[in-house]
Amino acid sequence: VTPMGVRCANPVGPGRRPPPGRRRAPCALILASLLIAVAGALGDGDPARHDVVALRSHLDELRAAAAPIDVEAILRCREFVYAQAMQAPSAQHVLALRLGAEAAASTETGLKNLLGLIEKYSDGKVPVKSVKDAGATVTTLGFPKEIPFHPAVARIDDVLLISSSEELARRSLKLLTSGEGKSKFDDPRLREALKRLPEPEDALVFY
After folding, report:
1. Rounded to two decimals, what is the model's pTM?
2. d(CA 24, CA 37)
3. From the CB of residue 206, how many other CB atoms can be counted at a distance below 10 Å?
4. 158: which residues sit within 8 A by CB, 6+ positions away?
5. Count of beta carbons in the 10 Å neighbourhood of residue 45
6. pLDDT digits (tens, 9 = 90+) for 135-151
7. DSSP conformation letters of the chain
C-alpha cells in the first residue's frame, strides 16, 4: 500500500505457520520501541524516580497501560501488510494487521495508553495528539521535529494500523479506505513484473 514494499502473511506457504520468532518480530519491535521510549522518558534525572519502590510503581503502571493489547490475536494474525517508504533522512515503516474488531479496538487502546505514559513522564514535552482522517482517529506521539519518527496508531474496523510516521499512517489510511493516492502497485514496471510470476498462494513480497 505504500511506495517501497509490501509483505503479506503467510510468507512460508499455505497451511503452515511461520516460526515464532518471525511471527513476533514486527509487533515485538514496535512494542519494544514504545517501551524504550517510556524508559527514556522516565530517565529524567530525578533521583526519586529511580528507587525500587518508584520503579515497581512505574512497571505496574506500564503493565496496566499495556493490558488491553491482545497479544494472542497479534501472534495468531494471518493477514497483515508491512511496508517501508523512504522519507529523508530515514525510512519510515507501517504495519497493518487484521485482528478482528474487538481485538483491534482493545489493542489500539493499549497502544494509546502507552503513548499517554510517554506524554505523562515527559511532563508534556512529548505530547500525544489525535486527528481525524479517512474515517479514523490517528493518534500520534509528538516528538520534536528534529526527530524523524513520530509513532502513530489508528484503526479502521478490524484493521489496526501502526506506523513510525503520522504522514505515512494517514496516506495508508486513505489508500485503505478510498484508494486515494498512489501505491507501488500503480507502477507499470511492477505490474508488468508481477505478470511474469506465478499467482501468489498466500504471500507477496517485493522491493
Report:
1. 0.69
2. 20
3. 13
4. 98, 99, 100, 101, 103, 104
5. 6
6. 889 999 988 888 888 99
7. --SS-EEES-TT-TT-PPPHHHHHHHHHHHHHHHHHHHHHHH-SS-GGGGSHHHHHHHHHHHHHHHTT--HHHHHH---EEEEEEEETTEEEEEEEEE--HHHHHHHHHHHHHHHHHHHHHTTTSS-EEEEEETTEEEEEE---TTSS---EEEEETTEEEEES-HHHHHHHHHHHHH--S--GGG-HHHHHHHHTSPPPSS--EE-
Q: Give the C-alpha separation, 180 to 3, whole Å.
A: 13
Whole-angstrom Cα distance, residue 91 to residue 130?
23
For residue 174, the one-letter residue type is K
Of 21-25, 97-101, 163-167, minimum mean pLDDT range? 21-25
- What cell numbers appear for 162 in the block? 501502526
